[in-house]
Each structure stands twice: as C-alpha cells, then as structure tokens.
Amino acid sequence: MPAEPGTVRPGGRTARVRAAVLRAAGDVLAEQGFAHLDLADVARRAEVGKTTVYRRWGSVTGLVADLLADMAEQSLHRTQTGSVLGDLRANADLVQRTLADPRQGALFRAVIAAAACDARTAEALRRFYDVRIAEWAPCVEEGVVRGELPSGTDAAAVVRAVSAPLYYALLTTGTPPGPAAADRAARAAFAAAAAGVYVTGEGHREQDT
User: Fold this and answer.
1) Are residues 121 and 104 in the same domain?
2) What is the pLDDT of residues 86-113, one digit of tens each?
3) What is the CATH number of the domain that holds 203?
4) Chosen domain end from 51, 71, 91
5) Residue 126 lies inside a defined structural domain of this protein
6) Is residue 4 part of a domain?
7) Are 153 and 189 within 8 A, CB to CB?
8) Rounded distance, CA 135 to CA 192, Å?
9) What φ, ψ does residue 199 adopt, rounded to 5°?
10) I need a labelling partner for 31 at 20 to 30 A (CA). Which of 52, 155, 202, 203 fits?
C-alpha cells in the first residue's frame, strides 16, 4: 500500500526540498492564514517545481499535516527540574514563548482555525498535541512516584491543563499570554493535581475510601 503524501521521511536533496517547502508553507500560514495557502505559491516561495510539491503532498491539507508532523519532531524536549511544579512551569514557559513568537503564534492561530472546519487538519493537529503531551507527561508520572501527586493522577490531563488557559487567552483576546499568565497556569494545574482533581480510575476510588 503506498504511503500517504507527505508522510515519507526523506534524506539528502529530498530532505532539503521538504525543509524548504515546509518553511514556505509555515510562512504563508503565519502571514496570510490557511485560506491563502496554495501549493503553487508555496512551490514558488520554496524555489521548487510545482510538480514536485503536487506529487509529494497532493493537497493543502496533506502539506499542513506534514508541517505539523515536522513541528512535533522539532519541538524541544521536556525540561527536568526535579519537581512537578518546576517542570510544569517550564512547560508553560515553552508554550507561552511559542504563542508570543510573531511567526509561531500566527501559525498556530491559522492551523487551529483551519482545524475547526477541516477534518484532516484537525486530525493532524491532534497528532501534534499527542506527541507534545507524551513528551511532557513523564514529569507528572515521576511526581506521582516521588509522592508529590496522588496515585492515579492522569498525567496527560495535567499537561493539557497547563497549556489550555494560555491557548484560550490567545484565541479569545488576540493577545499572546505573558510570563505571568504562564506561571499562573502552571501553579493552578499543579494545585488542582495535588488536590486530586485529576485522579482517575482506581486511584480515584482509593481517595474516596
């Protein structure tokens, strides 16, 4: 069965072409939004033949899916500070800096808007966040082992709780959240987790007894 367009990880010249095309696609998204993303325009910006772009990615949504996959691969690894709160603050700081970056913040707004009305973009965005949550979930799991958080704490839910208010602030105000908002989000998620708000399954039943 042939691979879906944009999913094969190439090397050599093909890798350089992919990098140039993805960079150009990200630029268009950041500058003009999803509605203006056009494969021919991306090919022109990347100085790549249109045939190459159409053959490799097939569609705008295929290109966006590959861009998100690349962004997930290039994202920074989690920070280990030795405490759950320290790790969650590091995560919140990373999200805040990303959303405050002129290019990255605009790019995420464009992709989130597209995901609201395009199923393939929505799935690609979910995969992106699945990768990022899986990267940071161990900081919560390790906190459970150290006794900082109750047994049964849903690590993924805690990580989502850190970034959720930051994205909400960006999308509802149009203004990127600042460092104070990042610190507040991390402290709120930690306090809720320490109080057992994110305990599920067997751990939740143990808390009730």
Assistant:
1) yes
2) 999 999 999 999 999 999 888 988 898 8
3) 1.10.357.10
4) 71
5) yes
6) no
7) no
8) 21
9) -75, 135
10) 52
pTM for the structure as a whole = 0.81
Give residue-wise pLDDT tens across range 9-19.
Answer: 555 778 899 99
Domain that holds residue 122: 77-208
Residue of 88, 115, 91 whose CA lies nearest to 188: 88
Residue 117 belongs to some domain of the structure: yes
Q: What are the C-alpha distances in Å from 200 to residues 11, 69, 76, 158, 191?
A: 43, 30, 29, 12, 16
87 and 182 belong to one structural domain: yes
Q: How far apart are CA 122 and CA 193, in angstroms?
A: 28
Backbone angles phi, psi at 156, to 5 degrees: -65, -40
Convert 149-168 to b/e letters by CB count within 10 Å (16 or more is b).
bbebbbbbbbbbbbbebbbe
Instruction: Measure the CA–CA gap between 174 and 153, rounded to whole angstroms.
Output: 33
